[in-house]
Task: structure prediction
Amino acid sequence: MHLWQPSLIRNDFVALLADAIDTAAINGSGSSNQPTGILNTSGIGSVAGGTNGASPTLDHLLDLKKEIAVDNAYVATCGFLTNAKVESVLGKLKDSQGQYFLSLYGAELSRSQIAGRRFEVSNNVPSNLTKGSGSNLSAVVYGNFSDLLIGLFGTLEILVNPYTDFAKGTTGIRALQSIDIAVRHAESFAAMQDAIA
Result:
């Protein structure tokens, strides 16, 4: 038998809110009270894979790096961000000696690198994009993520209402966190939004 522990529920709410913030920061539409995420910020660099999308290659990643460098936005802490589907495709790329391009332990333990830069994975990076006749395409982002600003206003509020549906014995719980998201410099980011994975 497990006793109800408020901290477990609180932690679940915090995890759900963190996931929603991550999603909005990456791909927020900028409409319907949603902040504008990186992929929908006008002025970010763009690398096209093909008419209907293309499998991501090392060349695409190097082109993303170039997009940042030509705008003088390159800093040593720039990194890649994509989803697990693209990671799987890129993880299988090898050089002429059969060595993997994606270094599984390039820096700290479990910190992946590719092309000498950090490589992070979040399944909040969309994998349902379309281009031409291509569908279920994924995004790959490269940039200076310190130029992605996430402002938190106030503290997380968790409100409990035991009278929501008293007759059924249910309790309403609502979590509120006021945030805003902005890309400080569009030049700090570039994306490929038609990766087949």
